[in-house]
Amino acid sequence: MEQTVPFKQTKLKRFLVRHRDALIAAAILGPMIFWWLVVSGFPTLFGFILGFFEWIGIQGQPKFIGLGNYIRFFEDPLYYNALWRSIWMGGLVSGVTLLAGFGAALLMNMPLFGKGIYRSIWYIPAVTSTVATTQIFNILLDPSNGVINNFLKSIGHEPIIWQFSTGWSVFWIVVYSVWKGVGGAALIWLAGLQSVDVSLYEAAEIDGAGRLQKLRYVTIPGLKPIATYIVITSLIGAIQIYEQVMFITGGGPYGQTEVLVFRIYRDAFWDFNLGMAGASSLIMAVIVFTATVLYYRRSTKADRSNTIPLKKGA
Question: What pLDDT is recorded for position 4?
C-alpha cells in the first residue's frame, strides 16, 4: 500500500530546497553578526543614547538633558578645536599616505627580481604592534639620549625637545602614521594597477604615448573605482587618528595635538563624563558618514558625467 507524505513535511522540504543558499549564508554569517552586535553594535548604540544624558561617574544617576551635551560641544573650544585638529591632521596623514602608497605601488608593479620580498617589506609596518613601534619612536625622540638628538649633537647642533614643540609633534605623528599606513595603501593601489587592461597600454604605445601620457590617460582613469574605495577608507581611518597621538605626544604640548577621539577617551575613562563622550562620538560619526556620502556621490557623479549617452535606436 502506497504511503502518503504529510503535507507539512512536503512544504518544509520545498522551502529548504528553494532557500538552500540563503540558509547556508545565514548559518555562516549569523554567528558573526551576533558577535558584532554584542561587541560593537549594542555598545555603539548605548554610547549614542548616552549623549542625551548627563552622567558623571559610573555610580551616579543619569540625568536626561536633551541636546545639552551637543550644544556644549560647539560652544566649548576644547571640543571643536579637537574636531578641527582631527580633520586637518587626518587629512594631512591621508593625503601623504595615499601619494606615498601610489608611488610605492608603481615601484612594486615594475618587473623586478624578488618583487614578492619587496612587497612583504612594505607591508610589515601595517601588521606590527602600534604600542611597540611608538615606543621605539619615543626612544628615537628622547630629548637627552635619543638617537636623533645624539646625531644632532655630533654635528654641533643643539638637541631639540620634540615634545615641547607643536610643529615637531605634528610632524612626527604624520611621519609615524604614514610609515604605518603606506604599506596597506600600496597593496590596494597595486591591485588597482594590475586590474587595468593591458591592451589599453598597448594601444597607447601604438599611438606614440610615453610613460607620463600612459600614466595620465590610461592608468589614472583606470584606477577611479579603486581610488574611490581607498580615499573613503583612508579618510575614515585618518579622522579617527588616536593611538599615535596617545603614545607619541599624549595630546601635548599643552593639548595642541589632542584630537577628537583622544578627547572622547579622556572624557569616558579619565573624567568619567560618559554623556559628553557619547555626544562627541555621535557628532564624529555623523561627520564621517556625511563626508563619505558626499565624496562618494561626487565621484560617481563625475563618472556619470564623463559617459556619452547613447541615442535611441543606436
Answer: 53
